[in-house]
Specification:
Helices cover about 40% and strands about 15% of the residues. The chain has about 325 residues and is of the alpha+beta class. The chain is globular. This is non-specific serine/threonine protein kinase.
């Protein structure tokens, strides 16, 4: 495949895109996207990401989200197109099509209930129950396990974070935003690459050396688990909002787990919106899983397959808890 360089033309990009697409994706014309968004009207704009704006539209009989990307984002556009035209899973956002006229466009299924970051810290969203939080974690883990274990070649997402986990109307999760994805051979050595990710989710080996392996995604997923428990940002800032004194969420939980009474410290970190409606043993299990995922040594982190197994157990525990506790009733011993 032709390599993308600063001199790559729009015709080159169209040729590259055509070379990697399959029948399940549709090539739209610019006019179709222009008409569907009423000229990319501000009233259709539903988001703004690192690589461009996102617009709502209805295309080919279904609701869609159109990501309009700058021409400078060619590498990210082609990476996402390559992954989502070849990889299909219930817990990965589905690509409907693309366009390379005038700009770069990716057209996805529209996921109508925002992202996990918004549910945890935004306004206008119902608080997630503990069972819903575990289900979102399991859905996301299954999506990651699929690209890590069941595709050839395997893929490394490289930008797992709560903002890239979309939530549908049934509170089920789908992993999105594959613009930084790298592919690697099964069992291959770590790749070295320039550091391009979100601060707070990056493991030590990536920050120091730019090393990329599947364990980079595992680390970031561990941070997401901590977010689900606490509803805090990956970087926790002082109450006055200043940058000085900011600490990583990983550090806060590690500090708690090494204290003389971890359970007492952990209760202070749990999302207050959960009230008393959670099983403490399940919180502890998820905390220890997140701690394993965020080990400093990547070799000590579990695979996503192992993470899925633990979360399946947690899901069963949480569903049983919900059945026994229809209201905010706490029957856990010792609390």
């Amino acid at each position: 495949m032709q390599k993308v360089t600063p001199s790559t033309t729009q015709a080159d990009i169209a040729s590259l895109a055509a070379g990697i697409t399959v029948d399940k994706s549709v090539e739209f014309t610019y006019q179709e996207l222009f008409n569907a968004t009423e000229g990319f009207n501000i009233t259709h704009k539903i988001g703004q990401g690192g690589f461009g704006a996102v617009y709502y539209a209805e295309l080919v009989g279904e609701k869609a989200a159109i990501k309009k990307m700058d021409m400078q984002a060619t590498q990210e556009f082609l990476a996402e197109l390559k992954v989502l035209t070849h990889v299909h899973h219930l817990n990965l956002v589905r690509l409907i099509g693309y366009c390379t006229e005038s700009s770069l466009f990716l057209v996805y299924e529209f996921i109508e209930n925002g992202n996990l970051s918004q549910h945890l810290r935004g306004t206008g969203y119902e608080p997630l129950s503990w069972a819903e939080s575990v289900r979102i974690a399991l859905d996301s883990a299954r999506g990651l396990e699929y690209i890590h274990e069941h595709t050839v070649p395997v893929y490394i997402h490289r930008d797992i974070k709560s903002a890239n986990i979309l939530i549908d109307k049934n509170t089920r999760a789908k992993v999105a935003d594959f613009g930084l994805t790298k592919l690697t051979e099964v069992g291959g050595a770590s790749l070295q690459t320039r550091v391009v990710r979100t601060f707070g989710y990056m493991p030590p080996e990536y920050v120091r050396y730019g090393d990329v392996s599947r364990k980079v995604d595992v680390y970031a997923f561990g941070v997401v688990l901590y977010e689900l428990i606490s509803a805090k940002d990956a970087i926790v800032r002082p109450t006055d909002g200043s940058a000085s004194g900011s600490r990583g969420l990983v550090y806060l939980f590690e500090e708690t787990l090494t204290a003389s009474d971890p359970k007492e410290g952990l209760q202070k970190l749990i999302d207050p919106k959960l009230g008393d409606d959670y099983p403490m043993d399940a919180i502890l299990m998820m905390t220890h899983l997140a701690n394993a995922c965020t080990e400093e040594d990547p070799k000590m982190r579990p695979t996503m397959r192992s993470v899925v197994v633990v979360l399946m157990t947690l899901s069963s525990m949480s569903e049983l808890w919900d059945m026994k506790n229809p209201g905010l009733v706490n029957i856990m011993s010792g609390r």
